[in-house]
Amino acid sequence: MNNNLKLERTLGLGYVIVVVVGNIIGSGVFKKIAPMAAELHSAGWVLLAWIVGGLITLFGALSNAEVAGLLADTGGDFVYHKKIYNRFFAFVYGWSLFAVIQTAAISSLAYVFAQSLNSLLPLPELFPSLNDFSIAGIFFPFAGFTIKLAAIILILLLTLINIKGIKSGALVSKLVLILVFAGIFLIIVFGLGSHHSLPSRSFDFSSTTNTPVTISAFFTAMLAAFWAYQGWATVGFIGGEVKEAKHNIPKGIVAGVFMVIAIYLLVNVTYLSLLTIPSLEEVYKSGNQIAAIEAVRTFWGANGAMFISLLILVSTLGCTNATILASARPYFAMAREQLFFRSAGTLNKRNTPANSLIFQGVWASILVLSGTFDQLTDMIIFAVFFFYGATSLGVFILRRKMPDAPRPYKVWGYPVVPAIFIIFCIILFFNTIVTRPREAIFGLTLIFTGLPVYLFLNRKKK
User: Fold this and answer.
1) 47, 229, 397, 411: least buried by Cβ within 10 Å?
2) pLDDT value for 177
């Protein structure tokens, strides 16, 4: 290992878009419509939540793109926050990535991969006698242990692939993305063309419970939508490996998010055209069904269920790989600043941050044992939107601190667009504390564990 080597700039705009889209399209596009239906009880409101979620994501991406264009480097928002605020805030962000945001994202994606694998090829049950074993009555590490073990194996295998070099990791994401696009296109075409399909049902705002939709319920439903859109900012983590990063990263973020919004709207109109809200609520209550599988089953039967299970398998494989590829870079950047474990700042012979990848893979594997898919994703969105808001606030701060600095991209709609996004992040943060207190408390606890680490690292530095 060498502490003096630097990351090489080998990725062009095409790879940037692949990393953006590959980090976004994973499990949410197939699963998250069910909890949204259970929260809102109305097809029209569910579709509106996807639209608003997409627009807010776009506002955040546009704001982030200006900061990325100005400050692009390995570590993404960690680097931005150090420049905008200070080393301590940058550390809290970076530690949050490691403790919950990115590692839990890897865990939840791998978990859905393992669920899909089990539906295609039933895995033998392991340690059934320990299913009810719990830690403080909250965590059940051995419940569904076979699924969790398969997820852990996937995380460790993809970590090894990415240790071999960023090109090999990005190539896997590119191939998988082509397959996923083809599969989603088939669902949309055959789903909307099916005689079972009633597209007008997607725009029905009547509630199955005859009760009005509250603002709080709408924000809670958008936690699910935001998980499906989550991942666009991680391309900033590999800024030190992108050619002409200050031009290609903003372009890649905006192009990638636009592509995903269009795909999500089409595929969710398809789901809502094929499945009623009560049937989606039943899918959510079952706990082990996936909305996309049930939608495709309506027009392709058992063969359709097999097809979509394979598609989810491939999609989550690609998204897990893309997330592992990008997420280890901030810890590398932090270690170089003496704000993380020193060995994470070294590169191997293939110029990849191998130790950083290993630390990430081990902790993500531990998080697999801590909760269910929906618990993990709600916890991620709660934590990450606080920092998304901080980056968008940086647009205003940097325009005052660095007014004459060259900006390859300026956010469209300034100051309204970043201001709307910041306000939205604040509302989402506090609404989650009220409606999902368990996930909020667990997420905050993991973030606050970084405080003694920061004190230790600074003491050691002195």
Assistant:
1) 397
2) 74
